[in-house]
Design goal:
The chain has 358 residues and is an alpha+beta fold. It is 44% helix and 11% strand. The protein is built from 13 helices and 11 strands. The strands form 4 sheets. Strands 3, 4, 5 and 6 form a 4-stranded antiparallel β-sheet that branches. Strands 7-9-10 form a 3-stranded antiparallel β-sheet. Strand 9 (216-219) and strand 10 (225-228) form a beta hairpin. The radius of gyration is 22 Å and the shape is globular. The relative contact order is 0.13. The protein binds adenosine-5'-diphosphate (ADP), 2-acetamido-2-deoxy-1-O-phosphono-alpha-D-glucopyranose (GN1) and magnesium ion (MG).
Length: 358
């Protein structure tokens, strides 16, 4: 991180970073460096405008989970993130007006899944997300700040796409006419969940809102899901967002930016495994309306994310980090291919869900 004095940052957190005298030797001075390990993260203030509100959400949610885990005799330091306070008792350290850091306890002996998506891993991931939602089932969702307003408001994402097409700041709209046409042709189903939340036919819950598989830590030995991390977008929302978003990447046969679309398919078996784990932990708490929309949720979230990638491409790649030219366009094409494939499998996905929830 350019020009940031990380030693200064670390000194401001309430951790024992000093070295201690160790052992009884007479000759060499032996010291033990801190034995606990911590994760230091810079908060993205371009995206999260109010770091303290963001951290307040995270503290409330992790404390709530912590209390439940303690009551059940579990290990709260593994089952949820632990926020390390600064020396002056704050949840993050302000380095300068644009630069804020937070610290968590490192959760050892865990792995994340990036590309190795086995069916067993999908099943465990489903259990992990289902358990996360079950633990927060009675959390008062309304007390959370909306860290990114309208994050999963799909119709608003379509409006943003239309604005980007009109402004065409990077002069790219002409070259992506087919992708734009695909996106706009599917606008009909975009309001399904926001309308349901508005008319209360779908319950407002605490949602994670970014349930990519690499936001779950798995035990490195048993491969069970240990902890759901990356809690920046924990906000009021729908369980359908978390279910659908996990499968957007989790059930794809390829990486999110794979350019060879012949390799990109929606894997029904991966869907079944994730859904089985999810319903095992959370199925009895789902309402009829949620159960009816579980098979639809991956399409909605994949479509919405594709629209966000396409919009960012038109905006000149200002939101999602890119590591090569056209990466956002590749991501959008990849997602639209998945949407089309999900559409061809809708009946199958419905019958998988009927077999899991009654
Ligand atoms: P990002 O916003 O960059 O996705 P994450 O919070 O997801 O940030 O962290 C990035 C990666 O760091 C995770 O995928 C995980 O591998 C690792 N990680 C983050 N927090 C912890 C933690 N408390 N313990 C162990 N590993 C962690
Ligand atoms: C971003 O930060 P990360 O990589 O976990 C994005 C998600 C997208 C995802 C697409 C705050 O997630 O909404 O689904 O990229 N997070 C934010 O890969 O916008
Ligand atoms: Mg992450």
């Amino acid at each position: 991180m350019d020009n940031i004095n990380l030693s200064e940052v670390i000194r401001n957190f309430d951790i024992d970073y000093s070295v201690k005298a160790y052992g009884n030797g007479h000759i060499n001075g032996t010291f033990l460096a801190q034995s606990n390990v911590f994760v230091l993260q810079r908060i993205n203030t371009d995206i999260f405008k109010n770091p303290y509100a963001l951290m307040e959400n995270i503290e409330k949610v992790t404390q709530f989970i912590r209390n439940k885990v303690v009551k059940r005799g579990g290990d709260p330091n593994r089952a949820t993130l632990t926020v390390i306070k600064t020396l002056d008792g704050k949840s993050c350290y302000r380095y300068d007006a644009q630069t804020y850091f937070r610290m968590y306890r490192f959760i050892p002996d865990t792995v994340t899944i990036e590309t190795e998506k086995t069916n067993e891993a999908l099943f465990q991931a489903g259990r992990g997300i289902g358990r996360f939602q079950a633990m927060l089932d009675d959390f008062p969702a309304a007390c959370l700040h909306e860290t990114i307003p309208d994050f999963h408001n799909t119709p608003k994402r379509i409006e943003a796409l239309k604005k980007a097409i009109k402004a065409d700041v990077a002069d790219r709209a002409e070259s992506v006419k087919d992708e734009i046409a695909f996106a706009l042709s599917r606008a009909g189903f975009a309001d399904t969940v926001v309308n349901g939340l508005r008319d209360k036919s779908i319950p407002l819950r605490v949602a994670h809102n970014d349930t990519k598989l690499n936001n779950i830590l798995f035990d490195k030995n048993t491969l069970e899901a240990v902890c759901v991390i990356d809690l920046d977008t924990v906000m009021p929302g729908s369980a359908l967002y978390d279910f659908g978003d996990a499968l957007r990447m989790g059930a794809s046969t390829a990486a999110e930016d794979e350019t060879d679309l012949d390799k990109v398919w929606f894997d029904e078996e991966a869907f079944r495994c994730f859904a089985r784990g999810y319903c095992m932990e959370f199925g009895d708490k789902l309402t009829e309306s949620e159960k009816n929309l579980l098979s639809f949720a991956p399409k909605l979230m994949t479509y919405e994310c594709g629209i966000r990638f396409l919009t960012d491409y038109l905006d000149g790649d200002t939101y999602f980090k890119i590591h090569r030219e056209n990466q956002n366009l590749d991501r959008a094409r990849n997602h639209f291919k998945l949407v089309a494939d999900i559409e061809s499998k809708e009946e199958k996905l419905k019958s998988i869900i009927s077999g899991l929830v009654s």
